[in-house]
Every structure is written in C-alpha cells, then in structure tokens.
Amino acid sequence: MTTANFPGTPAYRIGDAAARSGVTAANIRYYEKEGLIAPPGRGDNSYRFYSDGDVHRLRFIRLCRAMDMSLDEVRTLLALDLRSKADCDAACVALDAHLGHVRERLRELRSLEKDLIALRDCCDGTDAKCHIIETLHARADRQPAAPAQRARAARHV
User: Fold this and answer.
1) Mean pLDDT across 52-76
2) Of 1, 36, 51, 120, which has the most beta carbons under 10 Å away?
3) Overall pTM surpassing 0.90 (yes/no)
4) Predicted confidence (pLDDT) per residue in 86-112, tens digit
5) Distance (Å, rounded) from C-alpha 90 to C-alpha 75?
6) What does DSSP say about strands 41-42 and 48-49: parallel, antiparallel, or unpaired?
7) Do 31 and 58 meet the contact criterion of CB atoms below 8 Å apart?
C-alpha cells in the first residue's frame, strides 16, 4: 500500500507491518516507546505508516528477542554499522556477553532440573499421601520471609 504522504514508498499500517514482520501490533507500539524503532509517519487519516525498512528492523528485533536478547542488547546491535570494523568488534563483545548470560542460565536450568528430578523421586504414588506436596510444603515452611515482610514482622513483635 502506498499513500500520498509517502509517494513511491511502500507504507504499511500497523496491522500490515505486524503481519509482514511477525511482531504483534502491541509489541510494535512498545518498541516505538522504547526507541527501538523511530516513530512512524502518519497519513492524512492519522494512521501510522511503516516502511519496508521499519518492517526489516522489526524482523531484526524479533530475531534478537527470539535469541533471548534483552532490549538493551538489541538496542546496542541496532546502533552498529555492519560495514564498520570497530562495530564488528562491538558486536562480538555484545554477543560474547549475551553468551555468558545464556551459559549462566543453562547452569541455573540444569540445577533446577536436578532439583525437580529429586522432588519427583520423593513419591511414586503408592503411599497414602503425596510426598511431593509434603516436600513442597516443608520447603515453603523453611523459606525465609521477604525483606519487606521481615521488617513488618519486626515492628509487630
């Protein structure tokens, strides 16, 4: 769709940009608010219009987010020039940092997996009561109160 305000340039309303990019309209608005994409032009009818470049940028953001990158990491990569050697180095640094976060999360997930397996092994379903639920209740009782709760509890003593 082209409009009089954007002669010769494809201009897509938000729904079309969402469909072409695979990013929801709500996320497009959010990315605008976060400064990841520039505020779009508006037609005479006040509809937002997005260019092919905007759609590409949205696809880039969607790809980075699918790799679990934070908005700040995406922002960093969007600011880099693919023709610049210095920016290539910066991209490598950003990706290495993200890889570090991913590896840490994998360690956390492996630990969680072991914990869940141990919890599952507490019960085979043959006893009169469920030892999984019993274990979860016992763990809940051993959990420390959150800092705000401890402060309130201390005032009531």
Assistant:
1) 96
2) 36
3) no
4) 999 999 999 999 999 999 999 999 999
5) 12
6) antiparallel
7) yes
